[in-house]
Amino acid sequence: MKKRLLSIFLAVAVTLSAYSTIIIASAEQVGEDVVYFSADGTGDGKTVDTPTTLEDAIAKVKNGGTLRLKGTIGDVTKTRYSIGSKDKEINILGIDKNTSVIESKAAFAPVGKIFFDNLTFKSTVPTSDVFLFMLKGTENSEVTIGEDVVFDIAGTGGDQCIAPDSDGYTK
To answer: How far apart are CA 27 and CA 16, in angstroms?
Structure first.
């Protein structure tokens, strides 16, 4: 009788242990690996033909996941355009570096740990004194820029630069 109770107890313990491992593993993988987004996205973000909004894409992607930009996004009314997440490490990749564009009036301030590739950052004001991309903004950003990123100053008269922090910049 004692052996039988011990066997049942061990079987229950092993079963509960296996379920808790499955629950913990699935909790770590919350979110999508890849989410597509665009400026006018209304879809679920699961395919390039059904992009969602940037905000929704950031909410849906898992930590370390990839956001794929379709088209042009940004805010040309603001001098500084912020993109990213304080809570997640995110990769932002364009569909095509010539058509996947992030626009701002003059400056970009990435937020959080973020990787950019296969897209264009574009300053939309031809008379901007400087085109600024902040590697470390006010959000303690850690930014990595891939080989297929283009920095485009609209018109002439601006100096292209990458800033080490929000207090200064280097050309």
So the answer is: 16
Supply the pTM of this predicted model: 0.71
CB 84 within 8 A of CB 139: yes
Q: Tokens 């902040």 label which residue?
A: 134
Q: How confident is the model over 143-154, as pLDDT tens digits?
A: 888 889 887 766
- Partner residues linked to 114 by β-bridges: 90, 143
- Calpha distance 140→162 (Å, rounded): 16
Rounded Cα–Cα distance for residues 65 and 1 (Å) = 53
In whole angstroms, what is the distance from residue 30 CA to residue 124 CA? 37
Count of other CB atoms within 10 angstroms of residue 151: 15
Residues 44, 48, 54, 58, CA torsion sign: positive
Nearest-angstrom CA–CA distance, 54 and 41: 8
Give the CA count within 13 Å in the CB-facing half-sphere of 152. Answer: 17
Asked if 110 contacts 143 with a C-beta cutoff of 8 angstroms, the reply is yes
